[in-house]
What we know:
By secondary structure, the protein is mainly α. It has 17 helices and no strands. The radius of gyration is 19 Å and the shape is globular. InterPro entries: YtpB-like.
Amino acid sequence: MNPTSLGPKQLGALCAVAFRELTWTLPNVRREVDRWRQHAAAIPDPTLREDAMTSLHSERLNLEGAALFTSLPRHRDLNLLRLTVTYQVALDYLDRTSERLTADPISNGRQLHLALTEALDPGAPLSDYYRYHDWQDDGGYLAALVRSCQRRCLDLPAYARVRAHALRAARRVDVQILNHDPQPVRRDLALREFAAREFPHLVDDAHWFELTAAASSTVVVHALLALACDPAATDRDILDTDAAYSFAICAASTLLDSFVDQREDAASGNHSYIAHYDDPDTAARRVAEIVADSCRQARALNRGSRHALVAGGIVAMYLSKDDARSPDLRPAAQAILRAAGTLPRVQLPIMRCMRLLRGLGSA
C-alpha cells in the first residue's frame, strides 16, 4: 500500500507548496537567518560565537525544514515563519553548545534547554541558562531568541489551546541530555525510565529507545505552532495532530537521522538509537515500518495532503545525505524510501539539489 500516492489532491498540494516555498518561504527564511547571523556575529565570547555561527550555517536545512510547517495553514503567515525559524535557531544552537565538555554535563544541558520551554511560555521569566556552562557571555543572544518566540506565540490566534501540548513536547526534548551521559548502562536505564513515564500508553507497541527517539524531536512543536494559526482549529484537530506527530512522525525523524549518521556516531562514540536494534536488517525493517506509519498518519490528519508533504519531506531530507548512498547503507535506504511511498521519491532529488547548492551534502 502506497502511503503517499500522488493523486490529484496530493499533486495539487505539492505544486502549491513548491510555489510558496520558492516565492515566499525561502526568501523570508534567508532574511530571518541573516538577522540572527548579525546578532550571532556580535557575541562577545568567541566559543559561543563559534557555536552560534556554525549552527546557522551547518543546520541551514533544519531551518528551512522548520519553515516548511508554514505550508500547513491555508494562508501565508510571516509571524509563524519567523517563530518556527527562530525556535529552530535556538534549538540548533543549544544542541551544539550543550555538547561542550563541562564539569556537570547533565545539569548544564538541562539548564540550557530550559530556553526551549520558556520560549513557548509567554510571560515566563527567563532562567540563567549558562549557570553551569563554562562559556557565558553571549551578549544576550539566547535571551533574544527566547523573547522573540514568546512574543510571536502571543500573536497566534489559537495558541492558548495548543500551549499545554507544545510545552509538554518541549519539556520532553530534555531526553537529549540523557544521551550525553558517558556511562552507557546508566544512560540506557534513565532512557528506559523516561519512556515508561512519558509514554505509558505506547510501551507495549514500541521499543523504549524508539519512544525516547520520538521525544527528542521538536517536529511536533512546529506542527502545533502551525495549527495555532487557525482560530477555527478544533480540540480534535489538536489531539490528532499531537498524537500523530508525538510518536510516529517524530520517531521517524530521529531514527532516520540516526540511520544516516551510523558511521559518524560509531567513530565519535555518540549514542546511536539505531545501534539498539539486534542487527542492521532488523533496524532497516523497523525504521521502514515507522516511516510508512508516519506518512499514513500524516495523511489522515485534517489537511492531510499538506501534512504528508511534511512527513515525506522529513524522509527526503535525511535520505538525501551523502551517507545514505554509501554502499553499506544504500540498500536499506532504498527500502525505507519505498516504504514511504511516491511523494518522498519526488522530494528526494529536490533535497539533494538543495544540499549541493549549500555545500551540505554530509550535514
